[in-house]
Amino acid sequence: MNNLGTDVVVAGAGPTGLMLANELSLAGVDVVVLERLHERTGLSKALNLQPRTAEVLELRGLLSGAEERSFATVRDGHFAMIPVGYEGWDTRFPFQLGIPQAQVEEYLEERLATQGTKVIRGAEVIDFVQDKDSVSVRYRTDSGENVLYAKFLVGCDGARSVVRKGLGVDFPGVDGEGFGVVADVLFDRIPDGAQKQWRTMRNVGEPTGATTFKGLIPLGEPGLYRFVYGDRASRPADLRAAVSQDDVRRALLDSYGETATVSEIRWASQFSDAARQAEHYRVGRVLLAGDAAHIHFPAGGQGLNLGVQDAMNLGWKLAATVHGWAGDDLLDTYEAERHPVGAQVLHNVAAQLGLTPRSHSSRALRAVFADLAALPEVSKHLSGMVSGLGVRYPTHGTSHPALGSRLTDEDVATEDGPLRPSTLFRDGGFVLLTTTPAHIDAARAHAPSPRLTTQLVTSLPWPATEAVLYRPDGYACWTAPTR
């Protein structure tokens, strides 16, 4: 048995765990990532990066690499399969980026390796014990059991999280009533009416009956599509059971008839409409993020994105705590800020499921809702929920329209010309935009990190404001009024 030491152990090398590990490594934290699987599955799974996730990646200079691996730019989102646009959100990325989860994971792991941190694969967390100073994590590899001592442990190990279960944290919610199947299929003959390129959420999914649904999304490779189908009022006896190719072929035949022929089914898996959220995201030196903290039906394409944004919120706070730059109360704000966001996602997913056309009255409700969703203000509200653009964190003390809001990344004017603010966040530190150096010392007092980038600007977009301080995750946390 080996006894090793590190600052943080991250359990799970999915998008959430890898994003968190990148953030911690960037901040100079010694991090070890333990992943149960010996190698990545290569399965596409989630397919999108929402606009807010694109903004988050751009803060670290990661977006261009994701764009290179993407296969589509999708100009809208959807709410209960009803398209909603991103107009009015003042974002440079008013679109979803079509990219398989496997490509997101591969890219984040490659970037992690450039920082000198590697994923230990085939390392299954067994249990852990924490005290007031550390956490000892016991894990199993092919060569035997090991114990890893760390200052903190973060469970990013999915819906059946060993870390969450070990904490004994309640995971309340509902088991759900239905199921869905997701499969990647290669067509010899593409169904009539299917999109050839994924550019919009229109006509990629629809109800097929009172509770059943289907959808087809082109995946960039000729003839390759994501096929989704299911029933929101029926659950199989075993949701973990393998989905047979015959099952998928029958569903394709039922959905599209003889207009489609399939040459290959690359993979298929079931999912449920269960919805659960951990009662707490932090217990002492152990924290939860991603699917370990919340699960829901994949309505609106929010799951992967919610986890990546969890990681972005947690990363700088955990680094500041490890380095001793901040007190324990900063780490508590992770749960205070992200638990309500996760709860809101579960709430909007439940609302989407509530628009299932089960009856004459629910069909009428759905039709009226679709009319409302076409109104610009309603569309913006709905797209803000599913994209993450609408997230605003509560602040205390002085009221200012910038506080708690995300950086919109509009160019700011400097003596050397226009500057894109997102380029100032590459090192993962705080960023101060100010019209005068007089506010630098005050800003440092509000930044629990020695890494503060100061940029003098000729003006700011808010009246009577001389300075705005942004956290490493791109949310405004302090302002200075005009003297």
UniProtKB/TrEMBL annotation:
Xref: InterPro entries: FAD-bd (IPR002938), FAD/NAD-bd_sf (IPR036188), RIFMO-like (IPR050641)
Keyword NADP: no
Named cofactor requirement(s): FAD
Region entry Disordered, spans: 397-418
Keywords: FAD, Flavoprotein
MF terms (GO), sorted A to Z: FAD binding; oxidoreductase activity, acting on paired donors, with incorporation or reduction of molecular oxygen, NAD(P)H as one donor, and incorporation of one atom of oxygen
UniProt-listed Pfam families: FAD_binding_3, Rng_hyd_C
Annotated ranges, domain FAD-binding: 6-348
Name of protein: FAD-dependent oxidoreductase
The organism of origin for this protein: Amycolatopsis keratiniphila
Taxonomy of the source species: Bacteria, Bacillati, Actinomycetota, Actinomycetes, Pseudonocardiales
Gene: mhpA
